[in-house]
Design a protein that fits this description.
Elements lengths: L1 H143 L5 H15 L5
Helix pairs in contact: 1-2
Amino acid sequence: MPQISQLAATYQGQIFWLLVTFGFVFLVVGRGMVPRVQKTIDGRDGRISGDLAAAKAARDAADRAEEDWRARDQAARERAQSLLADARARAAKATEARLAQAGTEQNNRLSAREADIRAAADRAGTEIEAVAADAARDIAARVAGLTVSDEDARAAVRRVATTTGGAHV
């Protein structure tokens, strides 16, 4: 076969040019392009790690700020609860004082009204006793023809009232 016989004659030249081509490609790609690509990759890795470090620092700062906010919020809540409890206590004291004052005023009014009622009942009892004594004197004079003194008539009316359960006579 003629192709096989040509192979031995062209084999050395092809190997030479193959080595020259691969050497050129190695020099251009290996020495020229690969370092640039590696530099780009290293730069990108550096930016990524820097960005990750900055993000971690920002997250840590945000976490600290959140903790500070939570502590301030909790303190504000506690202060608000304390103020609310104080306001409730003051309102309860004020309400208690107003109720006590109103109760005292009501008791005073009630006592005054009860005294007025007792005085009116006493006056009514006295008037009833006087009317009853006058009536008893008139009845004794008309029926029995007796003259009874005013004191005797009042004493008789009092005896009858006490035996029958009369309250103010």
